[in-house]
Design goal:
It is a single chain. This protein is of the alpha/beta class. The protein has a domain at 4-228: Spore Coat Polysaccharide Biosynthesis Protein SpsA, Chain A. The protein is 28% helix and 21% strand. The strands form four sheets. It has an eight-stranded mixed sheet with strand order 3-2-1-4-10-6-11-9, with helices on both faces. Strands 5-12 form a two-stranded antiparallel sheet. It has a two-stranded antiparallel sheet with strand order 7-8. The N and C termini lie far apart (53 Å).
């Protein structure tokens, strides 16, 4: 049978073992699962119970030892060998029975329609009666304070009917790191922006994959097999606020969420500007999106921000930053 490579980055995540068990216990063919783990733990969990192949890369083995989430995901992808399929998830998820068979069948049907197709959708908890989940984009700031993100919303059928590629999937132009499924040959063929730490991980890779001519499709609600699980790092205690293992308290009221900042492995100011340069100009010192089927401007036009993008682009060009 064909193998599935499951990529899971885990930063002190207490759910990793449970997630690996879920992947196996809900699969029709659990022996075909190969795990690729990116670990960052003070005390690593015991993985000895798993008879499946488990490939591991650790944060300290990558780049300068602090690659952050974008860098560690790229390092995990380099562990792919002969696995035919790729599933990228977080270390806290829920899966429906038969997810492996269903996703394999779905991608094989999709690549007959367009051989450059990736399945992805921002994972949400199981919500009964949900219509579907599409991406709502937000673009803001000047080029030096550039920001872009995408959030999930439930559109009407009329809003997506012209984006349907079959009776299960629709074009969505958003790659979410907590659920990516595709053929491994495509995952390895794509040039992912894995050169830095964080932020802009998901918008940046959505742009890069779009420019490279890949179509990202999201499942309709009746075709969901993967859901977000509980991540304790983001729970807000109504008595104590956030857990200071994961958050920095800035002072004031502990019950005011605005007084807390996430602990994360972030890019410094220079690297953040390099990421912004790629998102705006299509090129930085690490990566270029030139000479691909689609341009950066095509991407912003496709998500409905052509006018705002032009303003930010011209601002950056007139400042001369791109030529420094």
């Amino acid at each position: 049978m064909s193998k599935i490579f499951i990529s899971i980055p885990a930063w002190e995540d207490s759910h990793l073992i449970d997630t690996m068990r879920k992947c196996i216990n809900t699969a029709d063919n659990p022996k075909d699962i190969v795990f690729g783990l990116g670990l960052k733990y003070e005390n690593e969990p015991d993985l000895s119970e798993f008879i499946n192949t488990v490939k591991i890369v650790r944060d300290q083995d990558v780049a300068d030892g602090k690659p952050g989430i974008a860098g560690i995901r790229e390092a995990i992808r380099q562990l792919i060998t002969d696995e035919e399929y790729f599933l990228g998830i977080d270390a806290h998820i829920d899966l429906l029975d038969g997810w492996d068979t269903n996703l394999k069948n779905d991608i094989e049907e999709l690549v007959k329609i367009n051989d450059k197709t990736i399945i992805s959708r921002q994972a949400t908890p199981i919500i009964h009666g949900q219509v579907t989940g599409a991406t709502k984009w937000n673009l803001r700031g000047s080029y030096k304070e550039f920001g872009i993100d995408g959030s999930v919303y439930n559109p009407s059928y009329d809003e997506i009917k012209d984006k349907l590629v079959n009776d299960k999937y629709f074009t969505n132009i958003y790659v979410s790191c907590n659920f990516i499924f595709g053929k491994s040959k495509d995952i390895l063929n794509i040039k992912w922006p894995g050169y830095h730490r964080f932020p802009f991980e998901e918008p940046e890779q959505s742009l890069a994959i779009y420019c490279q001519g890949y179509e990202v499709v999201a499942p309709l609600s009746g075709n969901l097999y993967h859901f977000a699980g509980n991540d304790l790092k983001y729970w807000f205690d109504p008595v104590n606020g956030y857990d200071e293992k994961w958050w920095i308290f800035l002072g004031g009221s502990r019950l005011d969420r605005s007084n807390w900042v996430k602990k994360w492995v972030l890019d410094d100011e220079d690297m953040t500007m390099e990421v912004r340069k790629l998102m705006i100009f299509g090129e930085n010192r690490y990566m270029s999106l030139y000479n691909y089927p689609n341009s950066v401007r095509d991407f912003y036009n496709a998500i409905g921000f052509e006018e705002q993008y032009d303003r930010i682009l011209l601002e950056g060009l007139s400042d001369g930053y791109f030529y420094k």
